[in-house]
Amino acid sequence: MVALMDTKKRLQIGNVARRAGTTIRTVRYYLEEGFIQACERSLGGFYLFSPDVVDKVSFIQKLTSLGMPLKEIKTLYRIRKEHQTGNDAYGLVLEQLMKERDLMDQKIKEYMQLRDELDQAILLVSECKGCSLRPTRENCIACDIVTRRSRIPLPFGAIL
User: Fold this and answer.
1) How many other CB atoms are found less than 10 A from the CB of residue 158?
2) How far apart are CA 35 and CA 29, in angstroms?
3) Contact indicator for 41, 49 with CB cutoff of 8 Å
4) pLDDT, position 8
5) Mapping DSSP to helix (H, G, I), strand (E, B) and coil, where does residue 159 land?
């Protein structure tokens, strides 16, 4: 009876994809690349996964959406598989995670700088309300709103 209940808790690939907010193709790719494993196959030949696979897929998706390459994520999985104990693997895993955190910190810094630029551009553009001139480069550069600034925010300058 317990085995039957466990089998009922298994998820087919489409259910994993739906719950993780991704595509079946992505889940298949993660399966092929060894990021996740199927517990078994159904009588019809479908892969069956434990519910915790949804968390793994979601986490990999989150890391990739934040810019961590799949190659680096795969390195973490490879390190763990190649070592006999956590003690053997921890130094390499720790080094990899710290490297990724440092890269993420750099990206956060760049995003914050870009956000500051966008905030400055928003302030400048909000002063354009009521302007009757055609928004051309020449008109905008000559405008008092722009000329009284010490510098033009990058996003505004880029769309001029």
Assistant:
1) 10
2) 9
3) no
4) 66
5) helix
